[in-house]
Task: inverse folding
């Protein structure tokens, strides 16, 4: 089994934003946490909606640290190939942050910056937004579905709450708890639930 410290990863502490102007062009960088590609794409859409008149909406993300292999993607959004999205991704990689989406908006000011100027501007916008957001170290989580009868629901809920895990509860024909424990705590949680319910709990 991997050492517990190997399971930890660094992500952004909050949403961040940073803007500046260079040679007439305005750049606005945004970063936010995203747990998967859908989260990242939604954030890109939100920024596009906030800046519908911008010339470019460049983005890059690194997601999947919780439940899936890390996925990386970037988009130059019409800028010269490799001058925009790749520098944004390079900053995220260099800062070793995961489960993060960065979007940099550009309003073109009429003066071309050149390849090097674009790389610098998109990198600086990303770095500034990351600095504004701050970082935190967290651990990957998994999703566990706990299905129990009503007679065992109080016991199961008490165990989950005593650990402080995030969870949702659905009370239908049976009770289903959707729990998000740290990966390293999954086996212990399952053992406790099975023991407390004499094996009646169904865990998925």
Result:
């Amino acid at each position: 089994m991997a050492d517990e410290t190997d399971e930890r990863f660094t992500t952004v502490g909050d949403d961040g934003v940073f803007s500046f102007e260079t040679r007439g062009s305005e750049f606005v960088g945004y970063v936010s946490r995203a747990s998967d590609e859908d989260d990242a794409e939604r954030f890109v859409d939100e920024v596009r909606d906030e800046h519908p008149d911008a010339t470019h909406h460049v983005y890059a993300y690194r997601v999947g640290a919780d439940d899936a292999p890390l996925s990386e993607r970037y988009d130059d959004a019409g800028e010269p190939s490799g001058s925009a999205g790749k520098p944004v991704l390079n900053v995220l990689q260099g800062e070793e942050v995961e489960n993060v989406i960065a979007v940099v908006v550009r309003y073109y000011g009429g003066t071309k910056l050149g390849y090097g100027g674009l790389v610098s501007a998109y990198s600086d916008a990303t770095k500034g937004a990351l600095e504004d957001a701050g970082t935190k170290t967290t651990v990957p989580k998994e999703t566990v579905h706990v299905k129990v009868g009503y007679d065992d629901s109080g016991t199961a809920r008490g165990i989950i709450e005593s650990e402080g895990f995030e969870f949702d509860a659905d009370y239908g024909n049976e009770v289903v708890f959707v729990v998000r424990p740290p990966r390293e705590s999954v086996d212990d949680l399952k053992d406790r639930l099975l023991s407390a319910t004499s094996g009646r709990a169904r865990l998925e």
